[in-house]
């Protein structure tokens, strides 16, 4: 069953919008990296970022399988995946600029597609959460790192992630309009991420912590650790509040309190 009206092509609007905003790796001032401002801690941080960004390919694979009845959402995901691949290579280019190389075997180990979500709506929810987290984390890192080329790159990527969050929210909202029975799986996903006492990033939960080759190597969890270290004590609370707010609007429920989320889940189960 097709889920999209034939005249609807949100991805075309997104495509033209992104085309106007699109930057290039060659726009980065990689020949003028201020090596004197590169702190040793930046290297494992950026390696972890590369490993996180590198998982867009298994994400793309999973999405195209799960949304094989939705051309429009699939088209958006194709555009999204290109931008994520660009992030992967842009951060890798910065590392190369400071003579650090990524082990390609680690990248290859991440290629397998993600397992399908409980429902397609749950998959979209996971991606919304992922994008909101990286948008926030990259923004903070862009202000924290002193090396200007890396700071510029974090800011560019942060802006892209904000756009991705917005688009995945759009597709989540639309999916739930035609598949309301998937709401319970969405609330379960949200509950897991917003009630955790630590900041879990989906890439860590579903990929880095499961792939044997990543053991002992930098992962997205190292990036999150740096974010928590450099941020005020209420950073996790603020981020979780943002997730509740943005997702609450999309699913049409007040998610500001844990009890409200659990009640909504219980209502749906009954
Ligand atoms: Fe990204
Ligand atoms: Fe993104």
| Number of strand elements | 0
Taken from the alpha-carbon principal axes, the silhouette is globular
Biggest pleated-sheet summary:
none
Provide the low-confidence segments as ranges: none
State the distance separating the first and last CA atoms: 27 Å
Radius of gyration based on Cα positions: 19 Å
- The CATH homologous superfamily: Ribonucleotide Reductase, subunit A
CATH architecture: Orthogonal Bundle
- The CATH topology, please? Ribonucleotide Reductase, subunit A
Helix content: 55-70%
Tell me the count of domains.
1
Which class of secondary structure composition applies to the elements?
A: mainly alpha
- Count of helical segments? 12
H/E element order: HHHHHHHHHHHH
The average pLDDT value, as a whole number, equals 92
What is the class in the CATH system? Answer: Mainly Alpha
């Amino acid at each position: 069953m097709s889920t999209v009206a034939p005249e609807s092509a949100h991805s075309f609007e997104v495509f033209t919008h992104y085309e106007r905003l699109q930057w290039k790796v060659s726009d980065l001032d990689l020949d003028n990296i201020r090596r004197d401002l590169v702190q040793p801690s930046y290297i494992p941080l950026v390696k972890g970022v590369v490993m996180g960004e590198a998982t867009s390919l298994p994400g793309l694979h999973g999405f195209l399988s799960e949304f094989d009845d939705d051309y429009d959402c699939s088209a958006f995901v194709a555009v999204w995946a290109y931008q994520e691949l660009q992030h992967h290579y842009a951060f890798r280019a910065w590392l190369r600029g400071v003579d650090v190389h990524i082990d390609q075997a680690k990248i290859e180990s991440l290629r397998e597609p993600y397992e399908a979500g409980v429902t397609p709506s749950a998959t979209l929810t996971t991606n919304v959460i992922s994008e909101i987290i990286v948008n926030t984390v990259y923004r903070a890192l862009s202000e924290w790192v002193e090396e200007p080329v890396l700071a510029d790159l974090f800011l560019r990527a942060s802006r892209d992630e904000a756009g991705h969050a917005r688009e995945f929210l759009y597709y989540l909202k639309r999916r739930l309009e035609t598949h309301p029975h998937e709401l319970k799986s969405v609330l379960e996903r949200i509950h897991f991420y917003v009630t955790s006492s630590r900041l879990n990033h989906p890439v860590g939960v579903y990929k880095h912590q499961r792939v044997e080759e990543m053991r002992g190597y930098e992962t997205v969890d190292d990036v999150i650790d740096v974010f928590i270290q450099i941020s005020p004590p209420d950073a996790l609370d603020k981020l979780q509040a943002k997730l509740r707010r943005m997702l609450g609007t999309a699913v049409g429920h007040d998610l500001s309190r844990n009890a409200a989320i659990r009640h909504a889940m219980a209502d749906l189960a009954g």
